[in-house]
Amino acid sequence: MRKPDPKIARLAGVSLFRSCSRRDLERLGRITDHLSLEPGTVLTDQGRVGRQCYVLIDGGADVFVGGARVATVGAGSSVGEMSLLDHRPQSATVVTTAPTQAYVIDSRAFNGILEDVPTLARALLRELSGRVRDLDLARTSASA
User: Fold this and answer.
1) Contact 12, 20 (CB under 8 A)
2) CATH code of the domain covering residue 59
């Protein structure tokens, strides 16, 4: 019997990867590196092209757009994945607020796995579509 891999279990708990099979998660785990980050570490920088996606294991981070804090993210959240897909400047700055453990995925490795793991591509599309809908709803509510 195989010993459960904690990395695979953590990745399976991330909304972005929930629909992936164990085999897909194992493949994703092979291209994922572990980082220990201090408070104040900039994960993404608004306006700069991103080359990495981060999955927070624990700790937390604040999300800033135009210098204003718009959200806080924590364990199970992913940041930076939009730039991995479109290779455009990042839409927000994300800065850790506490000691944080995270997995990092490089864009080259990520692009390679997207072609071979269609469940990941579909999950990513669902996640990003949900974010767009949430932003539209928030914008509509704010103007009402």
Assistant:
1) yes
2) 2.60.120.10
CA–CA separation, 91 and 9 (whole Å): 29
At position 134, the amino acid (one-letter code) is: D
> 96-107: string of b/e by CB count within 10 Å (b at 16+)?
beeebebbbbeb
What is the average per-residue pLDDT within 111-126? 79
Question: Residue 144 falls within a domain, yes or no?
Answer: no
Any idea what the Cα angle at residue 63 is, between residues 19 and 93, rounded to 5°? Answer: 105
Output the six-digit token pair for 29.
């785990």
For 43-91, how does the pLDDT look when each residue is reduced to its tens digit (9 = 90+)? 999 999 988 999 999 999 999 999 999 999 999 898 988 877 788 899 8
